[in-house]
UniProtKB/TrEMBL annotation:
The modification 4-aspartylphosphate is found at D52. Pfam families: GerE (PF00196), Response_reg (PF00072). Transmembrane segments: none annotated. Residues 2-122 form the Response regulatory domain. GO terms for molecular function: DNA binding. The keyword Transit peptide does not apply. Signal peptide: none annotated. SMART domains: HTH_LUXR, REC. This is DNA-binding NarL/FixJ family response regulator. Residues 142-207 form the HTH luxR-type domain. PROSITE patterns: HTH_LUXR_2 (PS50043), RESPONSE_REGULATORY (PS50110). Keywords: DNA-binding, Phosphoprotein, Transcription, Transcription regulation. It comes from Kibdelosporangium banguiense. It comes from the Bacteria.
Amino acid sequence: MRVVIAEDSVLLRAGVQRILADVGIDTVAAVDNGDDLLAAVEEHRPELVITDVRMPPTFTDEGLRAALAARTAMPRLPVLVLSQYVECSYAVDLLAAGASGVGYLLKERVADVAEFVEAVRRVAAGGSAIDPEVVAQMFARSRNPLDALTARESEVIGLMAQGLSNGAIAQSLTISQGAVENHIGSIFAKLGLEASSVEHRRVRAVLTYLDRTLPAVTR
């Protein structure tokens, strides 16, 4: 099996590579950012990608976005995501196109070598490996309408709640204003905010966001 690893922690990257080597799995590239991950996938056409979620330069979702782009360029490419924390919105993004050849594990699982290697082999074979803690938190939050939002849409509505205009949101996220408008339209649809003025729907969307997030912040 040929694997590409994307992880900005030198120690973890080397540790995963060593674990794989010990069971006869070949790491064809080990990189520390999303751009190099995409380049490595294009060059090596691996049978599996193992990637962190947060990598340089912003340490938000670069690894996940690169993995999703890689799956677009190379359909059915198995991807195993390793994350420091449970991030349900990222798990939803990853699973949106189906669970075949997809894994999402907490990094602490790497400590259990046998369990980690089994997950690697299962995902590479087209199966799935979702961390039990991720499943539990996704289930617990399944009634929250915000869970339907992608990671980027969650960022957009968060900035909306701060009172930023579309232009300011675009500048903050380094995307076009048209992209912001598309994200907001998608947010309205997913939250079931139909016909009314855009301004009214924007207020209702922000109120929904605050209602669902403020209790978690104050607990």
